[in-house]
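Can anyone check this?
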Amino acid sequence: MSRFRTILIPLICTALALTISSWDVQSVNSELMPPPPRYEEPSQWYIHDQKGTADIFYIISTETGDHLEAKDTCHYANTYDPLQRSQMLVEMAAVDSFYTGKLNYYSPFYRQASMNSFVSPELAAARTSRAIEDVKRSWQYYLTHFNQGRPFVLAGYSQGAAAVVELMREMPDSIACRMVAAYVIGYKVTKEDLADIPLLRPARGATDWGVTVGFNSVASPEKAIPLITDGNQLCINPVNWQRDSVAASFVYQSPEKSDTLTVRCDPDSRLLIVKGFETDEVLPVIGMPGNYHNFELRFYRPYIQKNIADRVAAYLMHGKLSVKEELAQDVARSAGCDVAYPSHSGRGLTPAPKDKKPFAIIHYGRHGSCYLGKPSDYNAPYEVLLSADSIGKLTPLGQDVLHRLKLIRDDANNHWGELTDIGIRQMREIVWRMEERFPEIFNKDAQRLGALSLRNTCSMLSMEYTMNHVAKTTRIRVYRNASQAFSDFLDRQEESRLAVRGDSAAQAAYKAFADKYSDDDRLVQSLFSDAGYVRAHVNAATLGDQLFKIAGNIQNTNLAGRVTLYDLFTSDEIYHHWKKRNAWLYFNYGGYVHHAEKKQALQHRLLRHIFALVDTVLQTRPAARFHFADETSFIPFVCLLGVNGYGLATDHLESLEKKGWADYRLCPMGANLQFILYRRNPDDKDVLMQVLLNEEEATLPLPTDVAPYYHLSDFYSYYQKILEPYEK
C-alpha cells in the first residue's frame, strides 16, 4: 500500500477492535483527555520551512481510534504517544510532499476525536469541539511565532476541515486579509455557516482569492454521509474549477492501476459525482460503498497542488495584473458593474494616529446583487432563438442555449430589478464588517442611525436589510426614509445622460470605439444553422451584447454556479465586450472630457449634503448615516471626488484600462464609499477623515501628512473649491 493511500484511511484495525462505548453527550466534557499539546515544543508540529513567500497551515483528518489511556478508554489522540504520533505524522508528511510546492508548511498535532466518535452527529459535534480547541491554540501560536505576516493557505480534511470552518468563524480582518484561500475538503459548509461567517465566500474559479474551496465526492447523491454533507452549500469541481454541472475527465493513478474517471458538480445536492470508479475500500464506522470520502485528496492530488500554487500567485500578483489578465483569472469580472461584490480581502486598516477614535460613519452605497431590470433583458434574446428554433434554424448548441435561457428567464420572472438572496447577504456582510471594525460607533450609546434611499426596489430593499441587521445586532434604534425628494442629491442619472446625448461628436467617437470591438459573427454562426436566416433576422452585435449581459448577471442569482453562458464566448470576445461596457459607463457617467463638468456638477448637491452631515455628527454622540442609490449616481460622485484616481478626464477611450479606470473595481454590486471620522474627544478640533472604497483604504487628490487619513479641514477646503463653480 502506497504512502499516500495509507494516510487517508483511518486505522481500521484500531477503530473496529475497540467496542464503541456507551455515551452521554452531556458527559463528554468530563471524558478522559490526554495531556494538552504544548505548542512551544517542536515535537507538537510538523514544519517544513522553505523560506517561501507564503505558508500552508494544514489540519489533518481523523487518523486515530479509541485507545487505552491509564487503563481507561480514551476517545482523543495523545499527541505524546509514539504510536499515535506516527499515525498522524504519515498524513502530515504526505500532504507536505504532495501539496506544499515552494510554500512553507505547518501542521499541528492535536487531540483529535477518534473515529469511533462519529457514530452520531451529536457525539461527533461534542467531541470535535473539544479537539478544535487545540487547533485554535495552535493557530494562535502559529500566527504569533511562525507566520511573520506572510500570506497563508488554510486547509483541512474531514475533521480537520471542520476545524478550518471554526478558525474562520473567529478570524479578524487583520488576519483574514492574508488568507489566500481556505480548503474545506470532505466536510460541509451550511447556509447557517455562510450567514454567520462573512469570510466564508465560495470560490468561483481557479484563481480567485480570499475564498473557500469545498467539495465532497460520491458515486451518486444517495451515497452521501449525512454527518459530513447534510446541508452543504459548497461545491466546486477540482479538475476544471467550475461550479456548473459539466463533467470533467481525469486519470486516477492508484497503486494497482490507472482509471479514467469523470467528475461533475450536482447542483441540487452540492456534491461531486464521480463516475467510472470501482473499489472495495470503504471508510470505517460511517462509510458505505459509493462514498469516496477517503479518496478526496488521492483523486484530485495534481489539481489541488497546482490550484494552491495558482491561487497564491494570483494573491501575490493582485494589483499588478492587466485588466485582460484579471478577466482571464476570473471571468465574472467582465460583468463590470454587474459583478457580484468581491470577496472581501479582510485587509486590516492602517491604525489611526495616537488617541484618535472613530466616532461617525457616513456611508454612500449602491444596492446589492439583483436581477436585470426589465423583462426585455431576458425576453429579447430568448425570443430571437425561439423563433429560429420553431423553423429548425438552430444548431445543437443554439438549442442548448435556448434551454439555458429559458431556465434563466423563468428564474427571473416577476423578479426584474429585485434584490436577490446574494444581494441581501452582501448588505448584511458589509454592515457586519462595519460593526466589527468600528465598535465605538455601533454601541449602545450611539445616536439613532439613519438611512435615506431612492424610491426604487433595489435601493429600498438594500436600506431595509441593512438597517434591520443593524437594529437586530446592535439594539440601536434606527430610522429610514425612502422618498423621491432625495432624488435632488441621490439620483441625477437622467440629467447626466441628457448631458451626453446632446453631444453628437462625442456620440460618434463612442460609436466608433464600440464598433471596433463588436465581433459577434463567430458566436452567432455557432448558434444558427442558416446564414441567410441570420442576415435577414438576426442582429449579431445586439444578440451578442444581450447574451453577454445575461452571462454576467447570472452570478448574482440563484443560478450562480449552476448555469453559465460564458462558455459561448472566446477569451478575446469576453475582453472586447468588457471594453465596450466599461467605455460606455465612463462615457455616460465618468469623466469623459467633453461633458465631465456637466455630469459631475449634478453631484454637487450630494457633496454639499455630506458636508452638512459632517457638521451635524460633529455635535452628536457616535452616529452613522447610510445612503442608497444606484451605479448611475454612485459613479459620478466617486469621479467628482477623484477617489483612487477615478476622476480621470480624457476623450481617449482606449486608454481607460491602462490608467486604471475599470468598472468592476469601481462599482460592483454593493459598491460603497465610507467616510470615517476620528477624534480624541468631542473637544478635539483636529478631526481626521478616512475614506474607504468598497471597504478598502482609498486615496483622495489632496495633500495629507497623516496618510491614509486626511485632516477634515483640508477636505473642506479642497472640495469647497470644487463646489464653487457649480454653485454659481
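Reply from J.R.: I decoded it. Residues 177 and 345 are 5 Å apart (CA to CA).
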